[in-house]
Amino acid sequence: MSKWNDRRVLVTGATGLVGSWLTRALLEQGAYVVALVRDWDPQSELIRSGLIHRVSVVSGCLEDYSAIERAINEHETDTVFHLAAQAIVGAALRSPLPTFETNIRGSYNLLEACRRLDGIVKRVVVASSDKAYGDSDVLPYTEDMPPRGRHPYDVSKSCTDLLAHTYANTYGLPVVVARCGNIYGGGDLNWSRIVPGTIRCLMRGEAPIIRSDGKFTRDYVYVKDAAAAYLAMAEGLDRAEVRGQAYNFGPEKPLTVLEIVDALRRLMQREDLAPVILNAAKAEIRDQYLCSDKAKRDLGWTPQYSLEDGLRETIAWYTEFLSK
Questions:
Q1: Where do the structural domains in the chain lie, given as residue ranges?
Q2: Is the peptide bond before 275 cis (omega within 30 degrees of 0)?
Q3: What CATH code would you report for 8-183+221-252+290-304?
Q4: pLDDT digits (tens, 9 = 90+) for 135-187
Q5: Is 108 annotated as catalytic?
Q6: How far apart are CA 26 and CA 71, in angstroms?
Q7: Of 190, 180, 148, 246, whose CA–CA distance to 17 is shortest?
Q8: Alpha-carbon distances of 93 from 12, 87, 103, 195, rounded to whole Å
Q9: pTM > 0.85
Q10: How crowded is the C-beta side of 267, counted as CA atoms within 13 Å?
Protein backbone atom coordinates (compact mmCIF):
# COMPACT_ATOMS: atom_id res chain seq x y z
CA MET A 1 0.00 0.00 0.00
CA SER A 2 1.25 3.52 -0.84
CA LYS A 3 2.71 5.64 1.94
CA TRP A 4 0.28 8.33 0.80
CA ASN A 5 -2.90 6.29 0.94
CA ASP A 6 -5.55 8.34 2.83
CA ARG A 7 -2.93 10.87 3.97
CA ARG A 8 -4.35 14.39 4.11
CA VAL A 9 -2.20 16.83 2.16
CA LEU A 10 -2.31 20.57 1.45
CA VAL A 11 -0.68 21.78 -1.77
CA THR A 12 -0.24 25.51 -2.31
CA GLY A 13 0.40 26.33 -5.95
CA ALA A 14 -1.52 23.22 -7.03
CA THR A 15 -2.60 24.90 -10.28
CA GLY A 16 1.01 25.70 -11.22
CA LEU A 17 3.44 23.62 -13.23
CA VAL A 18 4.95 21.47 -10.48
CA GLY A 19 1.85 21.64 -8.28
CA SER A 20 -0.34 20.10 -10.97
CA TRP A 21 1.97 17.14 -11.52
CA LEU A 22 2.60 16.69 -7.81
CA THR A 23 -1.14 16.67 -7.16
CA ARG A 24 -1.60 14.06 -9.87
CA ALA A 25 1.07 11.86 -8.26
CA LEU A 26 -0.49 12.24 -4.82
CA LEU A 27 -3.96 11.35 -6.09
CA GLU A 28 -2.58 8.32 -7.93
CA GLN A 29 -1.13 7.16 -4.60
CA GLY A 30 -4.41 7.58 -2.74
CA ALA A 31 -3.88 10.87 -0.90
CA TYR A 32 -6.67 13.24 0.11
CA VAL A 33 -5.51 16.52 -1.44
CA VAL A 34 -6.52 20.05 -0.50
CA ALA A 35 -5.54 22.84 -2.91
CA LEU A 36 -5.26 26.50 -1.95
CA VAL A 37 -6.30 28.28 -5.15
CA ARG A 38 -6.15 32.04 -5.74
CA ASP A 39 -7.23 32.32 -9.40
CA TRP A 40 -9.27 29.94 -11.51
CA ASP A 41 -7.22 29.39 -14.65
CA PRO A 42 -9.00 26.97 -17.02
CA GLN A 43 -5.73 26.36 -18.86
CA SER A 44 -3.98 25.05 -15.75
CA GLU A 45 -3.09 21.38 -16.12
CA LEU A 46 -4.86 20.65 -12.83
CA ILE A 47 -8.11 22.13 -14.14
CA ARG A 48 -8.05 21.15 -17.82
CA SER A 49 -7.20 17.54 -16.92
CA GLY A 50 -10.22 17.32 -14.61
CA LEU A 51 -8.05 16.53 -11.57
CA ILE A 52 -9.47 19.62 -9.87
CA HIS A 53 -12.69 17.65 -9.32
CA ARG A 54 -10.80 15.11 -7.23
CA VAL A 55 -9.37 17.62 -4.75
CA SER A 56 -10.87 19.86 -2.08
CA VAL A 57 -10.43 23.50 -3.13
CA VAL A 58 -9.94 26.28 -0.61
CA SER A 59 -10.25 29.68 -2.29
CA GLY A 60 -7.71 32.15 -1.03
CA CYS A 61 -4.23 33.56 -1.37
CA LEU A 62 -1.02 33.22 0.59
CA GLU A 63 -1.17 36.83 1.74
CA ASP A 64 -4.34 35.96 3.71
CA TYR A 65 -3.22 34.13 6.83
CA SER A 66 -6.75 33.08 7.75
CA ALA A 67 -7.21 31.25 4.43
CA ILE A 68 -4.08 29.16 5.03
CA GLU A 69 -5.05 28.39 8.62
CA ARG A 70 -8.54 27.39 7.53
CA ALA A 71 -7.19 25.07 4.84
CA ILE A 72 -4.98 23.25 7.33
CA ASN A 73 -7.31 23.26 10.32
CA GLU A 74 -10.62 22.38 8.72
CA HIS A 75 -9.14 19.68 6.49
CA GLU A 76 -6.68 18.43 9.13
CA THR A 77 -3.80 18.18 6.67
CA ASP A 78 -0.76 16.53 8.20
CA THR A 79 1.52 17.25 5.23
CA VAL A 80 1.98 20.63 3.53
CA PHE A 81 3.69 21.21 0.19
CA HIS A 82 4.35 24.93 -0.22
CA LEU A 83 4.89 25.52 -3.95
CA ALA A 84 2.86 28.67 -4.56
CA ALA A 85 4.85 31.72 -5.65
CA GLN A 86 5.11 34.45 -8.21
CA ALA A 87 7.61 32.56 -10.32
CA ILE A 88 8.41 34.80 -13.30
CA VAL A 89 11.77 36.56 -13.10
CA GLY A 90 10.70 39.29 -15.55
CA ALA A 91 7.48 40.02 -13.64
CA ALA A 92 9.45 40.31 -10.41
CA LEU A 93 11.87 42.73 -12.04
CA ARG A 94 9.07 44.93 -13.40
CA SER A 95 7.01 44.90 -10.19
CA PRO A 96 8.86 43.57 -7.15
CA LEU A 97 6.28 44.44 -4.49
CA PRO A 98 3.66 41.80 -5.46
CA THR A 99 6.45 39.24 -5.73
CA PHE A 100 7.69 40.08 -2.22
CA GLU A 101 4.13 40.00 -0.87
CA THR A 102 3.38 36.58 -2.34
CA ASN A 103 6.75 34.90 -1.96
CA ILE A 104 7.91 36.34 1.37
CA ARG A 105 4.75 37.28 3.29
CA GLY A 106 3.01 34.23 1.88
CA SER A 107 5.81 31.97 3.10
CA TYR A 108 5.91 33.28 6.65
CA ASN A 109 2.12 33.16 6.82
CA LEU A 110 2.19 29.51 5.83
CA LEU A 111 5.03 28.60 8.18
CA GLU A 112 3.36 30.39 11.08
CA ALA A 113 0.08 28.59 10.43
CA CYS A 114 1.96 25.27 10.44
CA ARG A 115 3.70 26.23 13.70
CA ARG A 116 0.45 27.17 15.42
CA LEU A 117 -1.22 23.99 14.19
CA ASP A 118 1.70 21.71 14.97
CA GLY A 119 -0.67 19.25 16.55
CA ILE A 120 -1.94 18.58 13.03
CA VAL A 121 1.01 19.33 10.74
CA LYS A 122 3.79 16.75 10.77
CA ARG A 123 5.63 17.55 7.53
CA VAL A 124 6.27 20.78 5.61
CA VAL A 125 8.05 20.85 2.24
CA VAL A 126 9.01 24.33 1.03
CA ALA A 127 9.95 25.21 -2.54
CA SER A 128 12.98 27.43 -2.70
CA SER A 129 15.06 27.56 -5.89
CA ASP A 130 18.59 27.46 -7.22
CA LYS A 131 18.02 31.21 -7.69
CA ALA A 132 18.21 31.56 -3.90
CA TYR A 133 21.98 31.07 -4.08
CA GLY A 134 22.48 34.16 -6.22
CA ASP A 135 25.63 34.66 -8.30
CA SER A 136 28.61 32.52 -7.42
CA ASP A 137 32.09 32.18 -8.85
CA VAL A 138 32.13 28.62 -7.50
CA LEU A 139 29.89 26.06 -9.20
CA PRO A 140 28.08 23.75 -8.86
CA TYR A 141 26.05 25.07 -5.94
CA THR A 142 26.14 22.89 -2.84
CA GLU A 143 23.75 23.06 0.09
CA ASP A 144 26.36 24.54 2.42
CA MET A 145 26.47 27.74 0.34
CA PRO A 146 24.39 30.55 1.87
CA PRO A 147 21.31 32.00 0.16
CA ARG A 148 22.29 35.43 -1.14
CA GLY A 149 20.06 36.50 -4.01
CA ARG A 150 20.49 40.04 -5.29
CA HIS A 151 17.65 40.59 -7.74
CA PRO A 152 13.94 40.69 -6.78
CA TYR A 153 12.92 37.11 -7.62
CA ASP A 154 16.18 35.66 -6.32
CA VAL A 155 15.87 37.63 -3.07
CA SER A 156 12.30 36.46 -2.58
CA LYS A 157 13.50 32.86 -2.79
CA SER A 158 16.47 33.52 -0.51
CA CYS A 159 14.05 34.91 2.06
CA THR A 160 11.69 31.93 1.68
CA ASP A 161 14.65 29.65 2.24
CA LEU A 162 15.83 31.52 5.34
CA LEU A 163 12.33 31.69 6.78
CA ALA A 164 11.95 27.92 6.48
CA HIS A 165 15.23 27.38 8.29
CA THR A 166 14.20 29.89 10.97
CA TYR A 167 11.06 27.88 11.75
CA ALA A 168 13.02 24.63 11.73
CA ASN A 169 15.85 25.88 13.98
CA THR A 170 13.84 28.05 16.38
CA TYR A 171 10.56 26.19 16.68
CA GLY A 172 11.47 22.67 15.63
CA LEU A 173 9.00 22.72 12.76
CA PRO A 174 9.53 19.61 10.59
CA VAL A 175 10.53 21.51 7.45
CA VAL A 176 12.63 20.54 4.45
CA VAL A 177 13.61 22.88 1.60
CA ALA A 178 13.84 22.11 -2.12
CA ARG A 179 16.25 23.93 -4.40
CA CYS A 180 15.55 22.80 -7.95
CA GLY A 181 17.08 23.85 -11.22
CA ASN A 182 14.93 25.14 -14.11
CA ILE A 183 11.84 22.93 -14.19
CA TYR A 184 10.18 22.26 -17.53
CA GLY A 185 7.30 20.12 -18.72
CA GLY A 186 3.77 20.11 -20.02
CA GLY A 187 1.49 22.62 -18.36
CA ASP A 188 3.92 25.54 -18.17
CA LEU A 189 2.02 28.39 -19.81
CA ASN A 190 4.58 31.07 -19.02
CA TRP A 191 5.58 31.55 -22.64
CA SER A 192 8.51 33.79 -21.74
CA ARG A 193 10.31 30.67 -20.48
CA ILE A 194 12.62 29.08 -22.97
CA VAL A 195 11.07 25.60 -23.29
CA PRO A 196 7.37 26.43 -23.76
CA GLY A 197 8.18 29.60 -25.71
CA THR A 198 10.46 27.76 -28.12
CA ILE A 199 8.01 24.89 -28.64
CA ARG A 200 5.18 27.30 -29.43
CA CYS A 201 7.32 29.26 -31.88
CA LEU A 202 8.46 26.12 -33.69
CA MET A 203 4.90 24.80 -33.89
CA ARG A 204 3.86 28.10 -35.49
CA GLY A 205 6.75 28.02 -37.93
CA GLU A 206 8.37 31.02 -36.25
CA ALA A 207 11.97 31.54 -35.20
CA PRO A 208 12.41 30.98 -31.44
CA ILE A 209 13.38 34.01 -29.36
CA ILE A 210 16.31 33.99 -26.94
CA ARG A 211 16.33 36.96 -24.54
CA SER A 212 19.95 36.47 -23.47
CA ASP A 213 23.03 35.87 -25.59
CA GLY A 214 22.16 32.16 -25.52
CA LYS A 215 25.20 31.20 -23.48
CA PHE A 216 23.64 31.30 -19.99
CA THR A 217 23.96 27.85 -18.40
CA ARG A 218 21.25 26.13 -16.36
CA ASP A 219 20.12 22.80 -15.01
CA TYR A 220 16.92 21.58 -16.67
CA VAL A 221 14.78 19.28 -14.53
CA TYR A 222 11.77 17.46 -15.98
CA VAL A 223 8.61 18.17 -13.99
CA LYS A 224 7.92 14.52 -13.16
CA ASP A 225 11.40 14.24 -11.65
CA ALA A 226 10.69 17.40 -9.64
CA ALA A 227 7.39 15.96 -8.36
CA ALA A 228 9.22 12.79 -7.33
CA ALA A 229 11.76 14.94 -5.47
CA TYR A 230 9.01 16.60 -3.42
CA LEU A 231 7.51 13.25 -2.51
CA ALA A 232 10.92 11.91 -1.50
CA MET A 233 11.51 14.92 0.77
CA ALA A 234 8.13 14.58 2.48
CA GLU A 235 8.70 10.88 3.06
CA GLY A 236 12.18 11.65 4.35
CA LEU A 237 10.78 14.00 7.01
CA ASP A 238 9.81 10.98 9.07
CA ARG A 239 13.58 10.76 9.77
CA ALA A 240 15.06 13.30 12.18
CA GLU A 241 18.22 13.79 10.10
CA VAL A 242 16.20 15.16 7.15
CA ARG A 243 14.31 17.81 9.14
CA GLY A 244 15.64 21.31 8.74
CA GLN A 245 17.71 20.36 5.71
CA ALA A 246 17.85 21.80 2.19
CA TYR A 247 18.30 19.64 -0.89
CA ASN A 248 19.44 20.43 -4.42
CA PHE A 249 17.75 18.70 -7.33
CA GLY A 250 19.29 18.80 -10.78
CA PRO A 251 20.52 16.46 -13.52
CA GLU A 252 24.12 17.64 -13.05
CA LYS A 253 24.37 18.22 -16.79
CA PRO A 254 24.20 22.01 -17.23
CA LEU A 255 23.24 23.24 -20.67
CA THR A 256 23.28 26.59 -22.40
CA VAL A 257 20.05 28.14 -23.61
CA LEU A 258 21.24 27.60 -27.18
CA GLU A 259 21.73 23.89 -26.48
CA ILE A 260 18.15 23.57 -25.21
CA VAL A 261 16.78 25.44 -28.22
CA ASP A 262 18.85 23.32 -30.60
CA ALA A 263 17.62 20.12 -28.93
CA LEU A 264 14.01 21.24 -29.41
CA ARG A 265 14.65 22.22 -33.03
CA ARG A 266 16.12 18.79 -33.69
CA LEU A 267 13.35 16.84 -31.93
CA MET A 268 10.65 18.88 -33.67
CA GLN A 269 12.45 18.68 -37.02
CA ARG A 270 12.57 22.46 -37.36
CA GLU A 271 16.30 23.02 -37.67
CA ASP A 272 15.49 25.40 -40.50
CA LEU A 273 14.26 27.93 -37.92
CA ALA A 274 17.35 29.55 -36.44
CA PRO A 275 16.82 31.38 -33.14
CA VAL A 276 16.71 35.15 -32.85
CA ILE A 277 19.17 36.22 -30.14
CA LEU A 278 18.11 39.48 -28.47
CA ASN A 279 20.94 39.65 -25.90
CA ALA A 280 18.64 41.81 -23.74
CA ALA A 281 18.25 39.80 -20.52
CA LYS A 282 18.45 41.85 -17.32
CA ALA A 283 18.84 40.92 -13.65
CA GLU A 284 19.43 37.24 -14.39
CA ILE A 285 22.19 35.02 -13.07
CA ARG A 286 24.45 34.00 -15.92
CA ASP A 287 25.56 30.53 -14.82
CA GLN A 288 23.93 28.29 -12.25
CA TYR A 289 23.85 24.58 -11.74
CA LEU A 290 23.59 22.22 -8.79
CA CYS A 291 25.31 19.34 -7.08
CA SER A 292 22.64 16.77 -6.13
CA ASP A 293 24.84 14.34 -4.20
CA LYS A 294 23.07 15.06 -0.90
CA ALA A 295 19.63 14.22 -2.35
CA LYS A 296 21.02 11.00 -3.80
CA ARG A 297 22.59 10.02 -0.50
CA ASP A 298 19.82 11.00 1.95
CA LEU A 299 16.69 10.59 -0.16
CA GLY A 300 17.66 8.11 -2.86
CA TRP A 301 16.57 10.61 -5.52
CA THR A 302 18.02 10.56 -9.01
CA PRO A 303 16.37 11.90 -12.18
CA GLN A 304 14.55 9.16 -14.07
CA TYR A 305 14.18 11.10 -17.33
CA SER A 306 16.92 11.96 -19.78
CA LEU A 307 16.74 15.39 -21.37
CA GLU A 308 15.55 13.88 -24.65
CA ASP A 309 12.83 11.79 -23.00
CA GLY A 310 11.61 14.74 -20.95
CA LEU A 311 11.56 17.04 -23.96
CA ARG A 312 9.71 14.45 -26.07
CA GLU A 313 6.94 14.15 -23.47
CA THR A 314 6.84 17.94 -23.16
CA ILE A 315 6.55 18.43 -26.92
CA ALA A 316 3.73 15.88 -27.05
CA TRP A 317 1.84 17.75 -24.32
CA TYR A 318 2.11 21.10 -26.12
CA THR A 319 1.26 19.53 -29.47
CA GLU A 320 -2.05 18.36 -28.02
CA PHE A 321 -2.65 21.57 -26.06
CA LEU A 322 -1.93 23.99 -28.91
CA SER A 323 -3.77 22.00 -31.54
CA LYS A 324 -7.13 22.52 -29.82
A1: 8-183+221-252+290-304
A2: no
A3: 3.40.50.720
A4: 999 999 999 999 999 999 999 999 999 999 999 999 999 999 999 999 999 99
A5: no
A6: 17
A7: 190
A8: 23, 11, 14, 21
A9: yes
A10: 20
